Amino acid sequence: GNSVTQMEGPVTLSEEAFLTINCTYTATGYPSLFWYVQYPGEGLQLLLKATKADDKGSNKGFEATYRKETTSFHLEKGSVQVSDSAVYFCALHGSSNTGKLIFGQGTTLQVKP
Amino acid sequence: GAGVSQSPSNKVTEKGKDVELRCDPISGHTALYWYRQRLGQGLEFLIYFQGNSAPDKSGLPSDRFSAERTGESVSTLTIQRTQQEDSAVYLCASSVQGYEQYFGPGTRLTVT
Question: Are A18 and A77 in contact (CB under 8 A)?
Answer without folding.
Answer: yes
